[in-house]
Sequence to fold (832 residues):
Amino acid sequence: MLSYSLRRLALALPTLLLAGILVFALMRLVPGDPALMFVGDVDDPEAVIRKRAELGLDRSLIEQFLLWSGSILSGDLGTSVKTGSPVATEIAESFPVTAQIVLIATFLSSIIAIPLGMIAAWKQNSSLDVGIVGFTTFCLSIPSFWMAVILLTMFGVNLGWLPTVGYVSMTENLLEGALYLIMPVTALLFTELATLTRMSRASTIDVLRLDYITHARAKGLGERTVLWKHAFPNAFAPTLTVLGLLLGHLLGGVVVLETMFSLPGMGRLMIGAIFARDYPVVQGVLLFIVMLYVVINLAVDLLYPAFDPRVKL
Amino acid sequence: MKRSLLSCLAVSAGITLASPAVAETSLRVSVNSDIRSTQFGVNRDGTTDTVLHHVIEGLVAYRDDLSVGPLLAKSWEVSPDGTAYTFTLRDGALFHNGQPVTASDVKWSWERLLNPETKFVCRNWFDGTGGTGIKITSIETLDDKRVRFTLQEPNALFLSRMAHMVCLSGIIHKDTVGADGSWNNPIGTGPFTIKEWRKNQFIELAKFDRYVPLKEKADGYAGNREPRVDRIRFLVIADPAAAKAALLAGDIDVLTNLDLDAVEEVKNAKGIRVGLNITPGWEVMLMQDQDPLLKDKRIRQAIAHAINRDEIVLAATAGLGKPNPSAVAEKSSFFGKDFQQGLSYSPDKARQLLKEAGYKGETIKLTSNAQYPFDNKSAIAIQSMLQRVGINVELEVLDWATQFKNYNEGRTQLMVMGFSARPDPTLMYDVFMGDRNKRKNVYYADEKALEALAQSSTTADPEKRRQIFAQIHQRMIDDSSVMGLFNFVEADAFRPERVKGFEVWSLGKSRFWGVEVAK
Fold:
């Protein structure tokens, strides 16, 4: 398993290099000028030229790329054009915020969605199944910004139960921190629930059709045992893959929710950097996201044999 | 009475929240983006300016009527030849570290700003290289409280530039800058100090207890800046709907830059008042006269005749803005009837001019962006007005960074653009007028108008300057390369039962000195 992990991590290197080139090139293909955005509404062409030189944007693209990748290799993600602070610090400050919401929401939605999907599959085509599928389709159809506005209006404005703005880290104050997370987590939960329930339902339906389930039932095992002991491990594996991808996707930043709930997360960092053409931040965050994907998918693959004995690493 | 779950939980769990002690008053204000840094004039944007003006003070500042008034300098004298300005510092002025402000601090602060290593983005406003040609040749201390700035040539705009809110030319204590040139928490002379900055969350200011204000009453950014609240917390709320919810929920006291479409709704909400303010910010449509099609003045004039400013104001500002065809703001002392004139709205005239020019339905691209609602809404209205007279317009909506680059390189046919407030008309004209060989973002380069513009910065007599501006305006209307649409409108919403003494003013940037909070 260790050698497998190391091999996988080594294989991630070409992925990272390719991602690096892509990220660098794409950012430069987009029109716009970081120096111009920095200087803003002060009308001085000289100031823009000076800033370009300071940022190294007057060098050739190859030179810029080599300089950037060189500093990445030495562990330096660069400095934000907009704020002047190191990109690594900006990521370190914003990632935990996103991670808190995403991990809590994903954990909660997993423990709700997976059993829900299995029950729907077990009672396939019954009114319960239709109800569950209908509910998840409804959840999937709600745009998250709308959900956010509804939550803010209902619990923030009308009932006055929850704070509409602000953020406290849960490591600083668990109770207060949790209070600020209720609305964003709820909003995210809705979108995740839908995806996971449908995945869990589909894979359970596939598994329930297999001979070994019929065999288990023929042995006289109770439905609960059949479902949890026999169907669950096999049905869970595909859901786990989706869960991994979902997690990677969400940890990269939940822009809409972070904006609506004024959370200092990585999605907002990224979107602000794109608007300001803050190359080092966009590049740094994207590379970080690629790394996240690699690590999460590796973790998923390592977990696979635990559920599916057919898979050997 | 609604009680937030937060306070209930806090009470029941016996924990103290981050809220201040009982006797302290605190004001919560929303801003739509975080500050960029505490380095005023070096790494700044609009929000950065708004916040730092509470901490850092320049010698002079704008009054509500856009004239220049005293701030850290209580008075000044100009030498008869107009080249020497002697400022006398405010009595009792202290830095946040308790040190008295002296003339040598002013000299040090200014020499630091003018030093290229400081990277002050407005250095060219004062070193002779900028459009208005102001060049400071020396800064001398006459005694502890008096400092003299000498210019190479007399210039009518020196004080205007000095008071400018964009490049705060603040006076700071030497200890703000470390021996290695590093930047610490700024030690200024303003009514508030920076207490805590949590990136992308909030910046909190604390009252400077030993602040000695000017006796002259508060007026715009000038005059008495006495702090009357213990803390101000500027909360970053990027989304307008979320900011509105926070105001309605009572989680903030003041909402700056309220979405104009929400004004009606918020105004009718209980316990909330909306302050509306027309600023000198100016919305224009640029017509590139270097373009093969638009170089024909008749086509540009036809476009101008086809546009109804009143309708644009309705579409872009919910009817709250003010049409203005000229670069002279309504609040400016130079404003008058001359500046309300533009080419009249006349679709017939437009069609006739198009016919004379031989326009054959060529597509003209109109550029705007999705970020600033004024721009995009104006552009949509303009497109339909131009189509009404038979002009084939393709609307191109870019992201702001892309449009700004195109603007700066002059790469456009028609472009809707907003120019942020420049209180003196010369400064506003200077944005889009100039030498095409030196910069590409020049959209009006008529020689006679440029001569007049140069005169306007060296002429001190206000009446003469007014005549010069009227002359530039007349030429500009006829040329129609830059078509003025309207002055910006800004809305701030607040809770009057809690916030006392808060008022909007002509430059729009919210001020919280003199503001009290009900306990």
About this structure: Residues 301 and 427 of chain B are 25 Å apart (CA to CA). The mean pLDDT of chain B is 92. Residues 462-479 of chain B form the longest helix (18 residues).
